[in-house]
Amino acid sequence: MRAGISATTMRLEKGVSLPVVLMFLLVITILGTLGMRRATTGETLSRNQLDYEVARQATEAALRDAERDLLSVANTLLPNALCARNDDRPTAGATRSPNFDNTCPRGQCRFERTYYDTSNYTTVTNPEPWWPTINGKKGLWEGPPASPSAKPSDALGVGTNCSFTGAVPLGTFTGVPRFAGVARQPEYLIEYLSAGNDKVMRITARGFGADINTEVVMQTYFRPYMR
């Protein structure tokens, strides 16, 4: 026993040290938990951003693929393509119109101008084909809402399900390489818009990330050489 310090004082010192140590342990535990949560949140944000970038690039690829599709030659099955356009497009000098309809056969949609003038998303009046098919807003990505059709795919092989309606999966008519690592192949719809002799195609594309819930939608306008 040290000189000048009683046994009672020593007992008090031992009693006080325990709650102090416990308090330090509690603080360290809280700081460690907060650090782990912060690291987990940062990783989740980074993963979500990466998934968004994948979906965005897939969407841009679908936009470019739609332009290639519009410029492709009719009645020609391109290398690595799953389907050919056949009679969808008129050849040079043909008098008939391309196969664009309000059911979007093989991704080619056409509505009258009066239809678009009265289209209203809030009341689900005259739904446009590229609207999302959620919350009662019925678009035509999958085909007519009452009868969705199967789409062509590499797994099914060339020439299978080529009479589909709705959006066109990437590479269906052009043969461009499909995207790897995505929950679903990017796809596009082409709307035939015309005002007099001016013919414009509105292309709407959507792409997905590794998570099906990560979706990006883009639109562009394109004037192909089409009579």
Describe the structure.
- With 227 residues, this protein is of the alpha+beta class.
- The chain has one domain.
- It has two helices and five strands.
- The chain has helices at residues 7-71, 113-117, and strands at 108-109, 168-169, 187-195, 198-208, 215-222.
- The protein starts with 6 loop residues before the first helix and ends in a 5-residue tail after the last strand.
- The model has no long low-confidence stretch (mean pLDDT 81).
Principal-axis shape equals elongated
What is the radius of gyration? Answer: 30 Å
Order of helices and strands: HEHEEEE
CA-to-CA gap between the ends?
A: 108 Å
* Total tally of structural domains: 1
Number of strands: 5
Helix tally?
A: 2
Instruction: State the secondary-structure class.
Output: alpha+beta
Helix content: 25-40%
Share of β-strand residues: 5-15%
**Averaged pLDDT:** 81
Q: Give the biggest beta sheet.
A: 5 strands, mixed
| Sequence stretches where pLDDT stays below 50 over 5 or more residues | none
